[in-house]
Automatic annotation (TrEMBL):
Source organism superkingdom: Bacteria
Record GO terms (molecular function): 1-acylglycerol-3-phosphate O-acyltransferase activity
Protein name, entry field: 1-acyl-sn-glycerol-3-phosphate acyltransferase
Domain Phospholipid/glycerol acyltransferase as annotated: residue spans: 46-158
SMART domains in the record: PlsC
Source organism (scientific name): Nostoc minutum NIES-26
Enzyme class: transferase
UniProt GO cellular component terms: membrane
Pfam families referenced in this protein's UniProt entry, alphabetically: Acyltransferase
Example GO BP: phosphatidic acid biosynthetic process
Length: 212
């Protein structure tokens, strides 16, 4: 039977981390501004697509959409006993570098089948200025297979949180904008996936261009 919500232990861990660490940092330290929270469905499967410029992006996105978002994590992290249990409960799923595509899709679909929100960075990696220039079709493929809508999210300013060689986050202002839902592709046809992917990229870049 498919679960209607995330497991209780995952929700408990999510809220504890959110209210004790992420939310205070976002609002007090980074002076975060959040727009479009009303666009987020609070139940059912959801593919959250965003730009990516910082290691801080996953918890920031999860905090702003007001529900846990499962992100992939490097397989090596799951070999550390205490850390493995913590990130697994929080919603991370392992991905091996040599088998990333197949592993990612299988794990993400399992979360979507259990009505989680799954986060996907549309370009697949960090970009220096937060702009999306080469979006990948993975998010659209997930949405098509799970029949889940896509939610575009733009993070502005996160590329400046950590300077090269620094381990201390800078108190830079952040702005997060959440766009309108985009319907899932009706098929896994390459052309349709590409069209939806470009639609997501345009929505995110347009919000990013609004700046602070």
């Amino acid at each position: 039977m498919v679960k209607s919500r995330e497991p209780f232990i995952s929700l408990a861990l999510y809220h504890a981390f959110k209210w004790s660490v992420v939310s205070p940092m976002l609002h007090a330290y980074f002076r975060g501004q959040i727009h479009g929270e009303e666009n987020v469905p609070q139940s059912g499967p959801l593919v959250v697509v965003s730009n990516h410029a910082s290691y801080f992006d996953p918890p920031i996105v999860s905090n702003c959409v007001r529900r846990p978002v499962a992100y992939m994590a490097k397989e090596e992290l799951f070999e550390i006993p205490v850390l493995a249990q913590a990130i697994k409960l929080y919603g991370a799923y392992p991905v091996s570098r040599g088998n990333a595509d197949r592993t990612t899709i299988r794990a993400a679909l399992e979360y979507l089948e259990n009505n989680w929100a799954v986060g996907v960075f549309l370009q697949g990696t960090r970009t220096p200025d937060g702009k999306i220039t080469d979006p990948k079709r993975g998010a659209a493929l997930l949405a098509a297979k799970a029949k889940a809508p896509l939610l575009p999210v733009s993070l502005w300013g996160s590329e400046r949180i950590l300077e090269k060689g620094s381990k201390i986050p800078r108190a830079v202002p952040l702005t997060i904008r959440i766009g309108q839902l985009i319907d899932a592709p009706s098929s896994t046809n390459k052309e349709e996936l590409e069209a939806i992917t470009q639609k997501c990229a345009t929505a995110i870049n347009d919000m990013h261009d609004l700046g602070r």
